[in-house]
Amino acid sequence: MTSSTAPIEEFDLIIIGAGSGNSIPAPELKHLKIAIVDDGRWFGGTCLNAGCIPTKMFVRPADLVRNVREAGRLGVSTAEVSLDWAAVRDRVFGRIDPISQSGEQYRASGEANISLVRETVRFTGMHELTTASGRVLRATQIVIGGGSRPRELEVLPFGETVFSSDDAMRLEHLPERIAVVGGGVVAAEFSAIYSGFGAHVTQLNRSELFRGLDHDIAETFTEVGSRNWQIRAGIEITEAKQTAAGWTLTLSDSSTLEVDAVLVAVGRVPNSDRLATPEVGFDHEEDGRLSVDAYQQVLKNGKPVGGVFALGDISSPHQLKHVANHDARVVARNLLAEARIARGEDAQLTENTLGPVPYTVFSAPEIAVFGMSLPEAQAAGYKAIEVRQDYGGTAWGWALEDEDSFCKLVVERGSGVILGAHIIGPDSPILLQPLLQAASFGQSIRGLARGQYWPHPAATEIIENALLQAEEEIQK
Ligand SMILES: Cc1cc2nc3c(=O)[nH]c(=O)nc-3n(C[C@H](O)[C@H](O)[C@H](O)COP(=O)(O)OP(=O)(O)OC[C@H]3O[C@@H](n4cnc5c(N)ncnc54)[C@H](O)[C@@H]3O)c2cc1C
Ligand SMILES: NC(=O)c1ccc[n+]([C@@H]2O[C@H](COP(=O)([O-])OP(=O)(O)OC[C@H]3O[C@@H](n4cnc5c(N)ncnc54)[C@H](O)[C@@H]3O)[C@@H](O)[C@H]2O)c1
């Protein structure tokens, strides 16, 4: 399949993608000749440069302003508050860009056994890659951590005033009127950010928001979110016309919307096509991600391809950084184990077997969930119960004057194991963790609430009360 006549450059290990893949070269791999290949606009992958980290650095000031605006109901009188987009943007990227740049410098010249290749590559053999400039790289072991990219909408292709999350935080000026297209986590987080900064935001989605989540969580998000930005769910853009000011969007109910700019946040596509992994015959799932086995080995005709592993968004059903990081830990162990097995030594591959995956949305309101809703648990054949604890039923909820937030628990009646937890409200990503811990270790909720102190009147009493309710319910 090699089309280039360039001399072949041989490595022990090639890592494609310097996002989560960049954590793989550890001291244990110092004996290997390694190439790290990445064609990103910024070095270090999505999370650092255009994902988890900068978004949360924008969410925080937007939250502060929103809290001040809402503080009147707690008796706090405030003058008008505002946020300076350019100042926040420069603070965020003034911190992030140097981290990315020094990471790149270190990889380019910091270690004798590592070569950095800043080019796009494609597979031209199962252990061979060809770069855009025609270099041919070969290795015994290859890790594919190529990530995903924002999906484009046919009716609104990306351009100067139609952008994805990649550009959404680096805008020169914050547009006054923004349409945010999508009903998932990216759309939710950016609607909260832009509206906190004072833009007039209209979120458009073809179905209800957060369709995959517990119904009450999705409904409450829509209700509370609507207090800060406009939400139009169950609507599609049928036509988009560029105007002098921005865009006129025609919607499926025949109404029109005038905006200055559009953020398209309708999911992310795995980068397997850019790597030509279909052409070398690797297996793929329906959504285009690479198929892997329990050891993160890439499959071909259902069987693992020796020496080829994948991690993160390019092979995971969960496009989440904590999942990509754990995949990388498993792959790092398995690279060494595979080499030992090949040398006839006693070694075993490690399975990727962590418990339920937490999913958190840093919007206004925040959401944190894992596992099944009650209908999902019942459909899966569990004898399950569900309880709901409102924040407002605890002293912390009174302090917040909260009338919207809640925690729902789905518990298997017999074992007392938590099958799902669904929290919407302030600090829900933190409140989820004790529940996730119990579920991850298969711990019954029996005795969990009363077997430890819960500081009074902290927000964790919401979890304590939910557990007590669930314990009572499974005893009936
Ligand atoms: C706006 C936003 C906010 C997010 N917030 C969160 C959050 O709060 N919490 C959370 O858990 N997750 C969050 N995520 C998801 C998280 O960022 C991703 O799951 C994670 O970064 C994926 O890591 P990865 O290593 O798989 O891929 P990436 O970090 O994307 O790395 C892949 C790298 O491969 C390179 N590459 C791809 N194809 C080629 C090729 N052919 N040749 C050479 N190089 C190539 C790319 O340039 C890229 O640098 C967020 C995502 C976005 C977009
Ligand atoms: N806090 C976090 O953990 C966090 C934050 C941001 C992103 N992420 C990750 O990034 C990934 C991408 O996020 P996302 O919000 O872009 O995707 P998503 O899958 O969460 O939501 C996509 C939304 O776009 C809509 N949609 C899809 N195709 C469409 C089309 N053709 N026309 C109109 N609407 C369409 C869907 O109905 C859905 O509401 C997520 O899977 C998530 O795991 C995580």
TrEMBL record:
Q: What is its EC number?
A: 1.8.1.15
GO term, biological process aspect, one: 2-oxoglutarate metabolic process
Per UniProt, NAD(+) binds at: G182, G183, G184, V185, V186, A187, A188, E189, G267
Q: Which stretches make up the FAD/NAD(P)-binding domain?
A: 11-323
EC class: oxidoreductase
What residues make up the catalytic site? H456
Listed Pfam families: Pyr_redox_2 (PF07992), Pyr_redox_dim (PF02852)
Which superkingdom does the taxonomy of this entry point to? Bacteria
Q: List the disulfide bonds.
A: C47-C52
Binding residue positions for FAD:
K56, D313
Note on how the cofactor is bound: Binds 1 FAD per subunit.
Q: Which Gene3D superfamilies match?
A: 3.30.390.30, FAD/NAD(P)-binding domain
Where does the Pyridine nucleotide-disulphide oxidoreductase dimerisation domain start and stop, copy by copy?
357-466
Cofactor needs: FAD
Keywords in alphabetical order, please.
Answer: Disulfide bond, FAD, Flavoprotein, NAD, Nucleotide-binding, Oxidoreductase, Redox-active center
The entry lists its GO molecular-function terms as: dihydrolipoyl dehydrogenase (NADH) activity; flavin adenine dinucleotide binding; mycothione reductase [NAD(P)H] activity
Please report which protein family the annotation says this sequence is part of.
Answer: Belongs to the class-I pyridine nucleotide-disulfide oxidoreductase family.
The record's annotation in NCBIfam families points to: PRK07846.1
What is the protein name stated in its UniProt record? Mycothione reductase
Q: Where is the organism placed in the taxonomic lineage, from the top?
A: Bacteria, Bacillati, Actinomycetota, Actinomycetes, Micrococcales
